[in-house]
Amino acid sequence: MESTDLYYPKELSWLAFNERVLQEAADKNNPAVERIRFLGIYSNNLDEFFRVRVSDVKRQIIIAQNDGNELEAQHQRKLLEQIQQKVMALSKKFDTIHKDVVKALARYNIYILQKHELTDYQREWVRNYFINKVLRHIAPILIDKKTDLLSRLNGNAVYLYVALRREGRSPRFAAVQVPTGEVPRFFLIPPQRSRKNKHIILLDDMIQLSMEDIFRGFVKFDTLESYSFKMTRDAEYSINDEIDESYVEKMSESMKQRLIAEPVRVIHDQDMPEDMVEDLQKRLKVTKLDTLHSAGHYRNFKDFIGFPNPGREYLEHPPLPAIDTKDFSAYNTVFDAISDHDILLYYPYHRFLHFTEFVRQAAFDPNVKSIRINIYRVASHSRIISSLIDAVDNGKKVTVIVELRARFDEEANIEWSKRMTDAGIRVVLGVPSLKIHSKLCIVSREERGKLMHYAHFGTGNFNEKTAKIYTDFSLFTKNQELAEEGNAVFDLISNPYRRYKFQHLQISPLNARTKIQSLIRQEIQYLKEGHKAGITFKINNLVDNELIDDLYRASQAGVKIRGIVRGMCSLRPGIKGLSENIKIISVVDRFLEHPRVMIFNGGGNRKVYISSADWMMRNMDNRIEVGAPVYDDALQQRIVDIMEIQFRDTMKAREIDKEQVNQYVRRGNRKKLRSQEEIYDYLKQLEEKK
Fold it and tell me: According to the annotation, is 407 in a ligand binding site?
């Protein structure tokens, strides 16, 4: 086997993941409104894929060409061609599924109307609404020979390309941004008679219906026509090395660079006339390395994530009320609870309020002396940051590590940094060469004349919003050895050139890779010695070739390996003589699977870890990540039980095979089991036994 055959290309694997999202939109067992929202998730994912992954492939081609490495350039061009072919195939599936979902909504009397489908009453209502509520937000770009359209477009927005035509003259072109930041994307048209039918029109169609009102009196035209398009920019940025420029200023400048970055994809309405397509392509400087293609009527489908439900409750997933665990609620304070025993929460099944209470109580508890926390992504209205500001007001020493380079959250994190600094919080802007991705919080509290540390280790961000839709583990512990090492991570960030030793924690980039590799090799040794051996893991992405090679070696030695990988997976399971002992599944359902978990049989002495790190080179070598051992036997068993439930999933689990064809796990004679719902029932039953 060629060495390149050992690893499935990560970019194609990412598209295979997004195809699983598209499968959820196609699944008629999902409620109709949820299906159209999955189309929005797919679209949002694809935008990020082009902004990040495709941009990188394009850069690799340019770099290889500049270096004279034609073999590498040819390899990357072939990969880009495979990506474009797969995207086109998925785009066709998307359009078919979209039509099917629209029909499904219509069966429940919910109609998404295009402009030509409106009644006279509806047209009048739409036009009046446009003039009174929307027109004020419209500022068209009138295009002439001097117009640099590329620099004026927002890569996150959808536009309408307009041709203003006069007989005997060349058309005048214009671009109109659909102002989804100022007004909603979806409008429920008030009924004229029956309230049974619900009619929805998109902002795009509302603007197109009233397009003449925008240009009349400013531009002469006999006829006009408009079609949607969207441009996706390269999301990469560079930071210059000016010594007199602060880190924040560098990041702010990079945001400006992103706004004028080159496009990597232009997608337009399939009905757009050829002369308009050619003009758009020329003005946006689309090259052979970029993706230009047509698709259905609507662009920026990501807004459909928030598609409203004007109908019955059963058109959405039934709510799963978050569990209020007695592990906290049975105690007077969070500190009493954690002092009594380690606590493990699993969001969104458990309430994220338990963590926000941890920070809130620390903010006013007279015995708390300091709070240290690192922030990667937080909610737009963060109760956590409000509590940290309260803590400063109450005389606590508060240190917040802010990662300014959290992709697509840079601007928000810069603003949070300024606000916290103004409030008196010590804000540390991380290590310039390393992203800080750990999910760590340490509260130090004086108890009986001694400073005791309470630690939180997690797999997910401190974000109240995503904690409702991402599955993630949170471990609260008063184990002083773990907490002291957690404190050392903060010291490492502030003093990255000092040496630190970590006996318990897996810290990237210091020891995480070597510790994981050592644990894998130990399983091989245990098996050789006749002891129990096995590896079980759950991560978002598995694309680190070095760790994959270690798993291959363990498989060849006979170690049974099971994995749950939500996204990219370069490992190719089921290859005889290489990976026949490796089984990997992927679960895509209503909640986004986000935890990182490692379970090693350990010759009968089981070892369980939770971590912030995926098995990617960037997470192992170029970020500060924290993996923590779970020492409590009952909490270990809880994690094992949750993993076993997912491996028994017969409804939402797909088998990741060597070609990643996304076949659902075969159910056979087994009963239907949807692991995300089964886990909720499992955790509720545990709570009832307390």
Answer: yes
Neighbouring CB atoms inside 10 A of 255's CB total 12
The widest CA-to-CA distance across the chain, in whole angstroms, is: 91
Catalytic (active-site) positions? 437
Q: Which residue has the higher pLDDT, 435 or 674?
A: 674
**Average pLDDT in the 452-460 region?**
97
* Amino acid 242: pLDDT: 36
Ligand-binding site membership of 377 (annotated): yes
Domains in the chain and their CATH numbers?
10-315 (3.30.1840.10), 326-494 (3.30.870.10), 506-689 (3.30.870.10)
Distant-in-sequence, close-in-space partners of 329: CB < 8 Å, separation ≥ 6: none
Work out the percent of the chain whose per-residue pLDDT is above 90: 76
Give residues with Cβ within 8 angstroms of 561, minimum separation 6. Answer: 534, 535, 536, 551, 554, 555, 581, 582, 583
How many helices (H) and strands (E) the chain has is answered by 21, 27
Cβ atoms of 570 and 9 closer than 8 Å: yes
CA torsion sign for 232, 234, 240, 246 is positive
Report pTM: 0.90
Mean pLDDT, range 322-344, rounded to an integer: 97
Can you tell me the distance from the alpha carbon of 177 to that of 183, in angstroms, rounded to the nearest whole number? 12
CB 594 within 8 Å of CB 460: yes
As beta bridge partners, residue 476 has: 343, 456
Complete DSSP assignment for 465-528: TGGGTEEEEEEEE--HHHHHHHHHHHHHHHSTTS----SS-EEETTTHHHHHHHHHHHHHHHHH
**Quick one: DSSP state of residue 612?**
S
Give the chain's mean pLDDT: 91
Q: Which of 127-141, 395-409, 498-512 is the least confident region?
A: 395-409
Distance CA(299)–CA(47), nearest Å, equals: 11
The answer to whether 590 is a known ligand-binding residue is: no
Mean pLDDT, rounded, for 271-279:
92
Please indicate whether residue 175 or residue 430 has the higher confidence score (pLDDT).
175
H helix intervals, 316-352: 326-329, 334-340
Q: Please choose, from the candidates 662, 526, 667, 658, the residue with its C-alpha nearest in 3D space to the C-alpha of residue 604.
A: 526
Q: Is 606 among the annotated ligand-binding positions?
A: no
pLDDT score of 184? 93
Output the CA torsion 109→113→116→119 (10° steps).
Answer: 50
* Position 90 pLDDT exceeds 50: yes
pLDDT at 253: 53
Length of the chain: 690
Q: Tell me how far apart the alpha carbons of residues 50 and 391 are, in angstroms, rounded to a whole number.
A: 42
Q: Which two tokens stand for residue 431?
A: 């290590």
Identify the pLDDT of residue 556: 98
What is the rounded distance in angstroms from the CA atom of residue 288 to the CA atom of residue 683? 53
Say how many Å lie between the first and final Cα of the chain, rounded. Answer: 54
Q: Rounded CA gap, 324 and 626, in Å? A: 27
Q: Does residue 610 contact residue 626 with C-beta atoms inside 8 Å?
A: no
